[in-house]
Amino acid sequence: MRAGAWDEDMDTQIRAEVTEFIVTNYLFGEVSRAPRDEVSLVDEGIIDSTGVLELTEFLGSHFGIEVSEAEALPQNLGSISDFTEFVMSKGRPPGAGGRGRRAGSRE
Predict the structure, then answer these.
(1) 11: buried, middle or exposed (CB in 10 Å: 19+, 13-18, 0-12)?
(2) Separation of first and last alpha carbons in the chain
(3) Rounded to a whole number, what is the largest CA-CA distance in the chain?
(4) Model pTM greater than 0.90?
(5) How remote is the C-alpha of 12 from its chain's centroid?
(6) Using an 8 Å Cβ cutoff, are 19 and 80 in contact?
(7) pLDDT confidence tier of residue 8, bands split at 50, 70 and 90
(8) 31 φ, ψ (degrees, to nearest 5)
(9) Mean of all residue pLDDT scores within the chain
């Protein structure tokens, strides 16, 4: 599979899984209330600071991503798009095969 196709497929999968987690855990399963990808989850009142911590734990348990204190910033964790881009920047999830991408790389 081409790297670009992998990235596109993974981007879609990550967005879907993060959205599902948010809908299930913060919106009581109401899919119709799912925020657009770029909406600030905190500013819209969907999650609070505890929710951000829970989402970072989800990233760790679900995607194998460790989030350092220095990385726990709104530009990394503010919206579904931010979460998706952050996961993608940390590299391919275990079992995805191939070489991982690192933050700042432009494969």
Answers:
(1) middle
(2) 14
(3) 39
(4) no
(5) 11
(6) yes
(7) confident
(8) -55, -35
(9) 83
Do the Cβ atoms of 8 and 16 come closer than 8 Å?
no
**Residue 81 near residue 68, CB atoms below 8 Å:** no
Dihedral sign (CA 48, 40, 21, 89): negative
C-beta atoms surrounding 93 within 10 Å: 17
| Long-range contacts of 34-40, Cβ-Cβ distance < 8 Å, separation of 24 or more | 35/79, 35/80, 36/80, 37/79, 37/80, 37/81, 37/84, 38/79, 38/80, 38/81, 39/79, 39/80, 40/74, 40/78, 40/79
What structural domains does the chain harbor? 3-90 (1.10.1200.10)
